[in-house]
Amino acid sequence: MKRYSKQALAYVMALIAGTAGCGGDGNDEARVRIFHASPDAPNVDVLVDGGRVLENVPYTVASDFLHVDAGERRFQIQVTGTDVTAIDATVPLEGDTDYVVIASNRVASIAPIVTTADRTPPPAGQAKLRVFHGAPSAPAVDVYVTAPGTSIADQSPVLSKVPFSAISDYLTIPAGSYDVKVTIAGTKTVAIKADALQVADGLTAMVAALDAKGGGSPFALQVLDER
Length: 227
Known about the structure:
The protein folds into 2 domains: about 5-115, Immunoglobulin-like; about 125-225, Immunoglobulin-like (Sandwich). Helix content is about 5%, strand content about 50%. The protein contains 1 helix and 16 strands. A 4-stranded mixed beta sheet has the order 4-1-7-8, with no helix packed on it. A 4-stranded antiparallel beta sheet has the order 3-2-5-6. A hairpin with a 6-residue loop joins strand 7 and strand 8 (about 110-115). Residues about 1-25 have low confidence and may be disordered.
């Protein structure tokens, strides 16, 4: 399982601390997470309405949820240290709503994916997980979630034929330890796996399937805590 480095997390949290005041209060603001998921793109800066809110963000790093005024907001993603803009999109944001803006696909075809996040807690003893197919080098996939050590030979996937750039609905499962396997759709050929993944009570998360840095294999799973 690929996780954020402590240095990357500390860097992003420091940036968030410095920009947390960019929105209003209550129903007049939205909360927005930015996720750099373009495998061959360089480090990027993120601008909201022309103001720089994140700097030098590397591939696979996601920000915390930034507080941003509701309404139509202009998001720009630029190559760090330059005025080269990879994404320039105006996104309508509703107040008191959580969003994830993903810089997705290879840099030649980079595009934003905007999705809402349901950060309400799951029932006691449960967790909520959703899957993002963010690996442009991989075909459509099936996703298996099983008890540790269980063969998938006779198992059915919990998600089938998930295409690139798709984000599933949330799956509610009991907290515990699981094997997660991502296979080429319609086959048992495992492209990505995470064995004995610990799913904590109360967790709400996006599990992202990603290319290696630069693109292609080895593919990896990354868990983005959405709480």
